[in-house]
């Protein structure tokens, strides 16, 4: 059974891992937008200690424990929990839905019939953030107009037509574990199977960046991990006989980019252009990540914090 386009049933899934303090205000904001809709909220908890179970009970929402480590497993668990006639909406536990967030996703799905609708994540730097970091583009998304067809996917704020994606035979790749890139792989698989991904400019989730993510150490690690994930995915999607050549090609390509961006960074330093220096530094780190992945060295983006 497919979702009713006039009044679709919604499963709103919140992937979470040991950030229980964020859940009450988030669930309250979500439920404020479900009035008049057939919707249920599900916390999908990746903590093996099930730290969000009690919170879910207190908030009166559904709970699902997914002990396989990694965001890919959590997102797939959310899709598996949905009925065929439910649309699966996913919103990460560290973002906050702005007014019109849910309607923005549903309206674009209703107008386009797309397999996936991607909302916009608006990053907000905290007061006092190093201007160099804020100017470097380390946390940024492009806000595409409603219905704009996309060729890539991020799943922190997204609607999935559950029945349609199941019919396409697409699932999240659990082998990615804690490395990241599960949304990119999922999106590419949807498009390869004939599905369409579109944008919703009206669905906005605000990401108030926490202070620990405003350090040069963090943005360095993030930029490199993105470069690693990008090359790893490109190599693993290729035919087996091509992969040795791709390792070489991506290493050389990364090296060339590293040289070019390093020169750009030097010139920006001489000009005193802080923004250009930050952008070139980000691209240099991304290129280093590409080279590391080409050499078979890939580290996970989603490091697991220790329990307090």
Summed up:
This protein has helices spanning 23-32, 53-59, 71-81, 101-112, 131-135, 162-168, 182-192, 216-236, 243-271, 274-294, and strands spanning 9-16, 38-45, 62-65, 86-91, 96-97, 116-124, 157-161, 197-208.
Please give a structural write-up.
The chain is α/β, with parallel strands linked by helices and 308 residues long. It folds into 2 domains: 9-212, Spore Coat Polysaccharide Biosynthesis Protein SpsA, Chain A (Alpha-Beta Complex); 215-294. The protein contains 10 helices and 8 strands. The protein has helices at 23-32, 53-59, 71-81, 101-112, 131-135, 162-168, 182-192, 216-236, 243-271, 274-294, and strands spanning 9-16, 38-45, 62-65, 86-91, 96-97, 116-124, 157-161, 197-208. An 8-stranded mixed beta sheet has the order 3-2-1-4-7-6-8-5, sandwiched between helices. Strand 1 (9-16), helix 1 and strand 2 form a beta-alpha-beta unit. The longest helix has 29 residues, at 243-271. The radius of gyration is 20 Å and the shape is globular. The termini are far apart.
Got a strand count? 8
What is the helix tally? 10
Radius of gyration: 20 Å
Shape: globular
Q: pLDDT under 50 segments (min length 5)? A: 303-308
Strand content: 15-25%
Order of helices and strands: EHEHEHEEHEHEHHEHHH
Q: What is the CA–CA distance across the termini?
A: 45 Å
The name of the CATH superfamily of the largest domain reads Spore Coat Polysaccharide Biosynthesis Protein SpsA, Chain A
Helix vs. strand class:
alpha/beta
């Amino acid at each position: 059974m497919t979702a009713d386009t006039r009044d679709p049933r919604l499963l709103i899934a919140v992937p979470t891992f040991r950030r229980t303090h964020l859940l009450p205000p988030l669930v309250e904001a979500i439920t404020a937008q479900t009035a008049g809709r057939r919707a249920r909220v599900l916390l999908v908890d990746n903590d093996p200690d099930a730290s969000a179970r009690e919170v879910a009970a207190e908030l009166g929402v559904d709970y699902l424990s997914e002990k396989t480590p990694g965001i890919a497993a959590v997102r797939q668990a959310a899709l598996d929990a949905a009925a065929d006639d439910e649309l699966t909406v996913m919103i990460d536990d560290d973002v906050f839905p702005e007014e019109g967030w849910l309607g923005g996703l549903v309206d674009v799905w209703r107008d386009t019939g797309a397999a996936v609708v991607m909302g916009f994540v608006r990053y907000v730097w905290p007061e006092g953030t190093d201007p160099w970091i804020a100017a470097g583009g380390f946390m940024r998304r492009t806000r595409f107009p409603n219905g704009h067809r996309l060729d890539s996917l991020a799943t922190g704020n997204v609607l999935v037509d559950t029945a349609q994606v199941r019919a396409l035979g697409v699932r999240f790749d659990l082998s990615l574990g804690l490395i990241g890139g599960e949304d990119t792989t999922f999106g590419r698989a949807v498009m390869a199977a004939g599905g369409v991904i579109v944008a919703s400019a009206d669905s906005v989730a605000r990401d108030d960046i926490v202070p620990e993510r405003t350090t040069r150490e963090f943005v360095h690690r993030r930029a490199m991990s993105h470069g690693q994930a990008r090359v790893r995915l490109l190599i693993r999607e290729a035919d087996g006989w091509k992969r040795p050549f791709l390792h070489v090609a991506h290493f050389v390509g990364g090296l060339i980019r590293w040289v070019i961006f390093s020169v750009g960074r030097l010139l920006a330093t001489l000009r005193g252009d802080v923004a250009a220096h930050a952008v070139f530094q980000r691209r240099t780190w991304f290129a280093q990540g590409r080279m590391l992945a080409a050499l078979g060295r890939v580290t996970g983006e989603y490091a697991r914090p220790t329990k307090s």
